[in-house]
Amino acid sequence: MEPTQGDPTPTSYGVGARIALHPMSDRFVDIILGALAEADAVRGGLATRTGAVSTFVGGDEADLLRYLSTLIGAATRRADGAHLAVSVLLSRGCPGEVTCDLRSGPWASTTPLEAEPTGVIARAEWSLYPLLDGGADADHMEPIMAAIDRAKESGLFDGSDHYVTRLHGDVADILALVTAAWRDVGAHVQHVTTHLSFSINSPTQEPS
Amino acid sequence: MEPTQGDPTPTSYGVGARIALHPMSDRFVDIILGALAEADAVRGGLATRTGAVSTFVGGDEADLLRYLSTLIGAATRRADGAHLAVSVLLSRGCPGEVTCDLRSGPWASTTPLEAEPTGVIARAEWSLYPLLDGGADADHMEPIMAAIDRAKESGLFDGSDHYVTRLHGDVADILALVTAAWRDVGAHVQHVTTHLSFSINSPTQEPS
After folding, report:
1. Nearest Cα to A131, choosing from B129, B92, B1?
2. Average pLDDT of the segment spanning A48-53
3. Is B47 within 8 Å of chain A by CB?
4. What is the ipTM of this complex?
5. Buried (b) or exposed (e) across A98-108, using 16+ Cβ within 10 A?
6. B32 alpha carbon, distance to own chain's centre
7. A11 touches chain B (CB under 8 A)
């Protein structure tokens, strides 16, 4: 890794998200389009583009956090009790679509990451991927273990399962934890991604 | 990385998947439970456990491929034209829930990975994560670029977008491509994960 050579912008550094809303209801089109329109009010300077499978959102972490939290809150209200699953992918440090030729070294902002509670309680599965390259003492599990400890301290930790950490709590708190953990690993590792799957209003008897 | 010291088993090596079916229909409970019951017929020696957010499936790659393809095909038939989204996570080389203390070095089977066509055409977004540790010349983008080239050769490549490669084709062919790419990176990198999001029967006008 090379040292930071001036601060990149979120766009030049490839900071962004992909999100897909999956309301398990015959009204899914209205729920998705209505929630996207509602979240547009807090889009601010974020770039957004909805594709066939998910919606891309690019911009800084605080804006992403507010947008994603608002979007999921809006979809949940519009689902009106129907089961809703949401997939979120966050990525940083690899701005090209198929190349990562950024040469500025690891960089992360330090602005506070806070989100208003949504009132929506969710279960989630979370995985964090620090994509290291060379380095004699590199250990990609070290930042993962630190993030799991952080989840435990947050009160949102709901257990570990194969390949994922389970979280339980307000959607905004879960997003704030995950966004901060992903952003902070980025201070030491250039290319970091994280995947988060929410389950809201599930009729399944939740395993304890 | 240490050299291989005898072949691990898929279970000891942590080879497995998590899958979540999201039928966007009021009938989602029947579709999901019916598809899981139907896929049980091809479960063979795989370990399965359904949690609050997704279902874990552990075992070797060929069995996983057959199971996942059968499950998605069954869910699509039961959805009967309704929109269905499916999230798949494959992981290998990190068998513990929160630790990766495996010490056998990179290992991958070489059995052929083939799946009967399902007749279900899907769009998908795919990302592949080789989780490297030390190594002076390590470059985590190298296996990712090789996998994208492989997608292009397969005829399933549908473009690149931020953080994902787009695929389009029969669900079984997409799963076979992704499973093989993930497995084959595993011959050189111990811990490898991959995420795949399918969209089936979407009413959205697909961007070309």
Report:
1. B129
2. 94
3. no
4. 0.93
5. eebebebebbb
6. 18
7. no
Q: How confident is the model at residue B207 (pLDDT cuts 50, 70, 90)?
A: very low
**Residues of chain A contacting B127 with CB distance shorter than 8 Å:** 89, 193
The residue among B40 and B12 whose pLDDT is bigger is: B40
CA angle A108/A114/A118 to nearest 5° reads 135
Mean pLDDT of chain A: 90
Tokens read off for A4: 């930071």
Element (H or E) spanning A166, and its range?
A: strand A164-170
* List of E strands, A25-139: 47-50, 55-58, 84-92, 121-131
pLDDT tens digits for range B159-170:
999 999 999 999
Strand order in the sheet with B84-92: B47-50, B55-58, B16-23, B84-92, B192-200, B121-130, B164-170, B157-161
The rounded Cα B206 to chain-centroid distance in angstroms is: 23
- % of residues, chain B, pLDDT over 70: 89
In the structure encoding, which two tokens stand for residue A84, read together?
């809703």
